[in-house]
Amino acid sequence: MADTHVVGPKATRREWIGLGVLALPCLIYSMDLTVLYLAIPSIAADLRPSAGQMLWIVDIYGFLLAGFLITMGTLGDRIGRRRLLLIGAAAFGAASVLAAFSTSAEMLIASRALLGITAATLSPSTLSLIRNMFLDDRERMQAIGIWIAAFSAGGILGPVIGGVLLQWFWWGSVFLLAVPVMVLLLVVGPKLLPEFRDENAGRIDLGSALLSVSAVLAVIYGMKRLAEHGFALAPFVIIAAGLGIGLLFVRRQRRLADPMIDLSLFRAPAFGTALGCNVLTIFIAFGFFLFIAQYFQLVLGMTPLEAGLWTAPSGVVFVIGSMLAPKLAQHWPIARIIAGGMVVSAVGFGLLTQLGSLPFPLLMLGYTLFCAGLAPIGALTTDLVMSSAPPERAGAASGISETSFEFGGALGIAVLGSIVMAMYRSGIVDAVPPGLPVEAVAAARDTLGGAVDAARALGPAGDALLQAARDVYVATLEKAAWICAGLSLFATVLILGFEKRLAMITAPAPAS
Length: 512
Prior knowledge:
By secondary structure, this protein is mostly helical. It has helices at 13-34, 40-47, 51-79, 81-100, 105-133, 137-168, 173-176, 178-192, 206-229, 233-255, 269-299, 304-329, 334-352, 360-374, 377-388, 394-431, 438-446, 448-458, 463-497, 499-503.
């Protein structure tokens, strides 16, 4: 990579300060995905939402965020990326205030929905601005590494800062964190950030926007249902409907003189391959992140804040890996860095296949290793996607890149989550001690969380039930670790097979 990179004009001090400004909304965007978790008990006591309303309070932010990324990225190409960023920042700050002072579950759901839609303006706008601000290959990769690190830092800080705030203030305070950051962006953004737009772009096609949003929302929602309820007909029907709408969207783009997404982007060999890497790596990571968090709380008995602190090292590793990615790319081909990371990840998962007998330090070593292997990949693949796209299409490319991450995460939680739950339910059938109340047995067979609650209700008589459920869950996680280790090794072989494609960073021809 050191001998083939494109040398462009070097960024000035203004661009690097501007990058710091762009990293701030990314930090908040990521924090809002996790900061709410510790506030759930307080919200439940204050607003008294139903079980369904509580699910929507938690999920609707990420749900609508994923749905609107492509549309907002394309909109930024047309009206100006800085302009869209500032509009989105103002709206995000206002929605944060509404969420903080919500007086009903319905108001909080609506506020979180607005936060998700406005958050979808932040990520594509910031990434596409980076694409145009940093024209030298190495500097752009370094800038994207810092941008990815901001997301990882937000994931670390969300639970920790949320826990600290909830010690002293009411639950709405977790939303007010965003307000000063967005105000700062509105003040300094016009002075430090340049404006970029596609001067030849036509008006956005509303039909394409509707099809894009509908397709993504249907697929993500179907995956969410799959993760919550296991394998059933309804989620697959919803996913199939989303894929069908996506096919209509693609056909419409081919007919339009000025399509919402230039399909020629996918002709660049590195573009599609990098998107595939995004989906695969996030698929592996997100599924197991969910299991580890539950293991810390439901098996080891940690509080949510303790679990958040012990999962924080993963975020630190991702920050470091994102920052190191540009340095690694100066010495080795990108495909080999990604493949090497997958091997390290497989070693970490290999340790976790012995979860039931591992002392806690070795558990954390395995956890840290699989995170370390995956850590540099996001920065490398994101840079490949952005460098494969022409500058005037940077907004659309960034929206597609971010959506691939969202799909990978949703797919990992849905598929791996469903497999784990199926194995748990199969194993618990024979492990439940005889003579327990029917209701307790039914709860234990549903989820580990149900087993914990049932055991507490039974008092000392529930100890055997709790131990049996925990043993089955640990054995299930060991099998899941084998699956993730196998997927990591499979990805290693696959990526090495695409080494030439990943080395071909050639921009497609502009749309006609």
